[in-house]
Amino acid sequence: MASDLLRLVDVREAAQTGEARRLRLAAGLSLGEVASEVGVGVPTVWRWENGQRRPRGTAAVRYAKLLEALEMREAGFPASNLSPTTNVDGDDTAAA
């Protein structure tokens, strides 16, 4: 499992390079769906994807976990039970 610090670095790079937006669109998710999953407003996700703001704090970690899940799904791994509060291993981190 990646540490939260590594996730923060990865999610900031994904947002800056456009990879986060590409993953969202490839998964067929709207800005609203991502915002709801991450626990932020639609403008926040839009700003992240457009380079106006950098993801930070616990929302950034949740966003990183969501992007990890989308990457797993894109790679062909089952990800139907993954959400920002779930590890890519399927363990519920909210219960920890």
Order of helices and strands: HHHHH
Number-wise, the strands total 0
Query: What composes the largest sheet?
Result: none
pLDDT < 50 runs, ≥5 residues: 85-96
Count of folded domains: 1
- The level-1 CATH class: Mainly Alpha
State the end-to-end distance. Answer: 14 Å
> Pairing-aware structural class of the strands and helices?
mainly alpha
Q: How is the quaternary structure best described?
A: single chain
Please, what is the CATH homologous superfamily? lambda repressor-like DNA-binding domains
The chain-level mean pLDDT equals 84
Helix content, binned percent: 55-70%
Which word captures the global form?
Answer: globular
Overall CATH architecture: Orthogonal Bundle
Gyration radius, rounded: 12 Å
Question: What name does the CATH topology carry?
Answer: 434 Repressor (Amino-terminal Domain)
Strand content: under 5%
Helix tally equals 5
What does this structure look like?
This protein has 96 residues and is an all-alpha fold. It has a single domain, classed as lambda repressor-like DNA-binding domains (434 Repressor (Amino-terminal Domain), Orthogonal Bundle). Helices cover 58% and strands 0% of the residues. The protein contains five helices and no strands. Helix 2 crosses helix 5. It is globular and about 30 Å long. It starts with a helix and ends in a 22-residue tail after the last helix. The model is unreliable at 85-96 (pLDDT under 50).
